[in-house]
Design the sequence.
């Protein structure tokens, strides 16, 4: 292992590290928003939207991110929509993550007794009010473990961005290896960089899961 | 007699092709307590759930306070503010404290100020011996306590009428009395109520009238005392016998 090689690559890896973090963060937030909307459309059986949500989930879950990215980056321009690699990557990640987040939320909502909805309706609450004050707070708490798993999953999926040449961590490592033929050093930095992101995050999320499980609603 | 608070005319309700309720006709006047009795599966729950739009119906007409109820979402939202309903499963919102459970609909649906609703909620709780439970979560209450809170939660909306669907059916025997007493008190305060119950003594004590449902049709609409002393039909007689009454 040649430490000077590593040292020389650090500026590039640092940039890639922040880019990976940034794209992951945007992708995860977007996925959470899409997932929340899709899951509520399904939960409250909103006419039209519910079918749309179902089709979206099937497509999103049953195609690889790689193919989704190719479609967005290379396929959409043919339909008149040209997006930069970075924007394509984020859209792809949200397209993939939205369905995973939706299913995580849904599993949480399904833990809520139907009777609560009935008694809420009988009190005159609208679907929107029920969602806001009853369904989402409970569903959110119940879906934290699944959401947390998706967060980790989506960060790892950013490594696939390399196929459309977004200079995130994996792409940077592969680039450097291609240029200088020093795979040990660059792969080492790559592993360390992912570990720096994922290990503390995973510990933090586990802590959050515990807190939510034991800290809410009089448990 | 003054105009009925609720009147039901020729109501029919089916699940797909399966007709559950046929040609239902009855009136409920202000201050009246009506016991809705009948065998399991006769359609009691289905009937009272159509009265506030939890179940759609296919034919017939509903009038509340003299006005025809247009069976569409906006009307039901309005009507549910005036008709309270409590179910067998208490269904408090487990993510909210007892107090928040009670204050939710009055503040969000009726748009009243929390400062006004909260003291009222507190005093309603106190009146049923639950004052010190205001800040607890439903999980920390017994079944009977939860059911009393569910009734308070419905009352906090100031309903003009209450629907009760076997609210004591899933309670431990020692919890039943407290909940029944609450309904007896409500009846004494002239609350208009439709009560589905398997507690015949309670029905006799509290009801002015009995509606008897037989396989989706009302086969008796009689003063309560008459219903229990001289059941008007063979079927009603059999039913009372089966309830050991
Ligand atoms: N969601 C539904 N879909 C189809 N059929 C239903 C549905 N709910 C109730 N039924 C049918 O409607 C009939 C009346 O049911 P309902 O629950 O109103 O009876 P009930 O008098 O309340 O009985 P119980 O005393 O057991 O509560 C039954 O035959 C039942 O199988
Ligand atoms: Mg029933």
Sequence:
């Amino acid at each position: 292992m040649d430490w000077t090689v590593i040292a020389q690559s650090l500026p590039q890896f640092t940039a890639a590290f922040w880019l990976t973090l940034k794209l992951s963060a945007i992708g995860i937030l977007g996925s959470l928003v899409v997932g929340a909307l899709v899951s509520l459309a399904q939960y409250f059986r909103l006419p039209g939207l519910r079918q749309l949500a179902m089709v979206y989930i099937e497509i999103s879950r049953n195609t690889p991110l790689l193919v989704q990215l190719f479609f967005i980056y290379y396929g959409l321009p043919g339909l008149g929509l040209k997006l930069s690699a970075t924007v394509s990557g984020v859209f792809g990640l949200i397209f993939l993550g939205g369905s995973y987040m939706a299913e995580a939320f849904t599993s949480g909502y399904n833990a809520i007794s139907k009777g609560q909805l009935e008694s809420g309706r009988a009190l005159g609450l609208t679907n929107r009010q029920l969602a806001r004050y009853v369904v989402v707070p409970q569903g959110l708490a119940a879906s934290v473990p699944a959401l947390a798993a998706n967060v980790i999953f989506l960060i790892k999926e950013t490594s696939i961005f390399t196929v459309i040449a977004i200079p995130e961590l994996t792409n940077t490592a592969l680039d450097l290896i291609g240029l200088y033929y020093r795979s040990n050093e660059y792969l080492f930095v790559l592993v360390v960089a992912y570990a720096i992101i994922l290990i503390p995050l995973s510990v933090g999320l586990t802590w959050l899961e515990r807190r939510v499980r034991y800290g809410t609603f009089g448990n | 007699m003054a105009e009925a608070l609720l009147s039901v005319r020729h109501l029919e309700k089916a699940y797909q092709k399966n007709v559950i309720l046929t040609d239902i006709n009855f009136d409920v006047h202000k201050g009246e307590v009506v016991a809705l009795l009948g065998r399991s599966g006769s359609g009691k729950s289905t009937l009272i759930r159509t009265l506030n739009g939890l179940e759609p119906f296919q034919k017939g007409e509903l009038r509340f306070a003299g006005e025809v109820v247009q069976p569409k979402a906006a009307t039901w939202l309005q009507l549910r503010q005036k008709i309270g309903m409590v179910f067998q499963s208490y269904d408090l919102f487990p993510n909210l404290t007892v107090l928040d459970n009670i204050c939710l609909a009055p503040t969000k649906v009726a748009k009243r100020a929390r400062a006004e609703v909260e003291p009222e909620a507190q005093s309603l709780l106190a009146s049923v011996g639950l004052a010190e439970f205001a800040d607890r979560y439903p999980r920390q209450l017994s079944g009977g306590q939860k059911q009393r809170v569910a009734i308070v939660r419905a009352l906090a909306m100031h309903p003009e009428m209450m629907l009760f669907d076997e609210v004591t059916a899933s309670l431990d025997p020692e919890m039943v009395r407290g909940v029944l007493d609450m309904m007896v008190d409500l009846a004494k305060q002239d609350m208009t109520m439709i009560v589905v119950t398997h507690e015949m003594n309670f029905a006799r004590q509290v009801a002015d009238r009995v509606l008897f449902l037989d396989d989706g049709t009302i086969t008796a609409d009689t003063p309560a005392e008459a219903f229990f002393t001289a059941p008007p039909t063979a079927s009603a007689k059999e039913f009372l016998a089966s309830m050991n009454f």
Remarks:
- The pocket of adenosine-5'-triphosphate (ligand 1) is lined by residues B 15, 20, 38, 40-46 (CB under 6 Å).
